[in-house]
Design goal:
Helix content is 38%, strand content 29%. A hairpin with a 5-residue loop joins strand 9 and strand 10. The strands form 3 sheets. The chain has a 5-stranded mixed sheet, with no helix packed on it. It has a 3-stranded antiparallel sheet with strand order 1-2-3. A two-stranded antiparallel sheet has the order 5-8. It has 266 residues and is α+β, with helices and mostly antiparallel strands. About 4% of the residues have low confidence.
């Protein structure tokens, strides 16, 4: 029943015209030649920007020259497929694995420690688009989930310890879920907190100093060994010389006694 109001009639006519035009467009699309239907294939794709959690990758898509064959054979960049020069680049989300494993940090007491859970991609999509939960195992570095208790993080997407204390040491576990409660990321952060009296945390420098001290000690021991060896040689030579001298004296006395005995016999 068409309304007698001219305004309602105009709206009714306008809606019917839009519906008619949309129907014509849909019918023409269904009757279109498959060769005229644009078909895109991925010709190049970069690796995912992260090895765990949600990242992005860059894809290059180009139009196929033979759209009809592509629709009939469901071509997806087979060898020999010809593509046109009409290409575009897009960024798509990717996820290699939701398990990020255990990562460790060593700091001194009094420093600022910030542990980020979401990362750049998820942060760009909005930190309130995710469900982030934290758990904490005090005083130990471990990924055994039975050792963790719930931890309240005021910043939600990160843990900030400023200043960090020795009693803050332990493992912090972060887990991220999307709006559909699907697990997107889980990571363990093991934090070691050393007393503030320990100033040098440069492992390579400490190792070099350790090696230098060891070389100096070895050189000292070597010098002492050489000195002892030289002293021993000196003693042995002295004894040899002394023994040779005693032998000559005895030989001389023997000659004198023999000579006297000969003279007495005559």
């Amino acid at each position: 029943n068409q309304s007698s109001d001219p305004t309602d009639a105009a709206v009714w006519t306008h809606n019917h015209i839009i519906f008619y035009l949309f129907s014509l467009h849909l019918i023409s699309a269904l009757k279109a030649d498959p060769e005229e239907v644009p078909v895109e294939v991925i010709v190049d794709s970069s690796p995912c920007s992260v090895t765990c959690g949600l990242g992005v990758k860059i894809q290059t898509l180009c139009l196929l020259k033979d759209g009809k064959t592509a629709m009939e054979e469901d071509v997806r960049r087979k060898d020999g497929t010809e593509v046109s020069e009409e290409c575009r680049v897009r960024r798509v989300k990717c996820r290699e694995s939701w398990q990020c494993g255990l990562r460790t940090i060593t700091v001194t007491s009094g420093q600022r420690v910030e542990v980020d859970c979401l990362g750049e991609v998820m942060e760009a999509m909005g930190k309130f688009s995710w469900r982030v939960s934290w758990r904490y195992a005090r005083g130990i570095i471990s990924s055994d989930d039975s050792l963790f208790a719930r931890w309240e993080a005021p910043e939600l997407d990160r843990v900030i310890l400023d200043p960090v204390r020795e009693e803050d040491a332990g493992t912090y576990r972060c887990e991220v879920q999307d709006a559909n409660f699907r697990r997107v990321k889980r990571v363990y952060w093991g934090i070691r907190v050393l007393p503030d009296k320990i100033l040098n945390l440069d492992y390579e420098s400490s190792l070099a100093q350790w090696d230098l001290a060891g070389n100096q000690e070895n050189q000292t021991v070597s010098d002492q060994g050489d000195h002892r060896t030289a002293l021993l040689y000196t003693i042995l030579i002295s004894l040899s010389i002394a023994g040779l001298g005693s032998g000559l004296i005895l030989l001389g006395l023997h000659q004198i006694v023999k000579r006297r005995n000969t003279e007495f016999a005559q």
